[in-house]
Design goal:
CATH class: Mainly Beta
Radius of gyration: 15 Å
Strand content: over 45%
Strand order of the largest sheet: 1-2-3-4-5-6-7-8-9-10
Order of helices and strands: HEEEEEEEEEE
């Protein structure tokens, strides 16, 4: 899960605003260009996933469950909620004809952040998503196969969590 020092509302691009220093600048990395992502790749994420998440700011999570299902709005969504104020929501949805990955995180105490990430690189099944208007701030690599779901989250160049999930059962 990515954290942010701001709880301000989303910008016109759909990403939450952050304090100075959180994203790129005119002298920082160039903004990545989004690539086309096909629906078949997104459909490969659908269904239940279970396994460990390691290297997060709140420690390792030995059993983490996600179940991606389609909504009436044609979005693919999974929610993890421990009932104690920790909640993650991952959404794949189309905006202006392009698939976007949205990460929403809530922590105890009312901290909420959300980021819209665009696909910027694909190598086989592995797709890297980034926040277009904040180069270098948040990158998520996702590689779903029929039996595994790997996701690596990097914030400001530092590892922020690695999901190593598999189909349960």
């Amino acid at each position: 899960m990515a954290t942010s020092s701001s709880t301000e509302p989303a910008t016109a691009e759909g990403s939450s605003t952050t304090e100075a220093g959180d994203g790129g600048s005119s002298t920082g990395p160039a903004a990545p260009q989004p690539i086309e992502l096909d629906r078949a790749w997104v459909e490969g994420v659908e269904g239940p996933w279970l396994g460990p998440v390691t290297g997060t700011p709140i420690g390792d999570l030995p059993e983490f469950f996600l179940d991606f299902g389609w909504t009436e709005e044609d979005a693919l969504v999974a929610v993890a909620d421990n009932g104690k104020g920790f909640r993650l929501e991952f959404t794949f949805s189309q905006r202006d004809g392009q698939w976007i990955f949205t990460e929403l995180g809530e922590l105890p105490g009312g901290f909420v952040q959300t980021q819209d990430l665009h696909p910027v690189q694909r190598d086989g099944d592995r797709v890297r998503f980034e926040v277009i208007d904040q180069p270098g701030y948040l990158s998520v690599e996702i590689e779903p196969t029929q039996t595994s779901f790997e996701m690596a989250v990097v914030v400001r160049g530092s590892d922020h969590g690695r999901f190593s999930l598999a189909r349960p059962g």
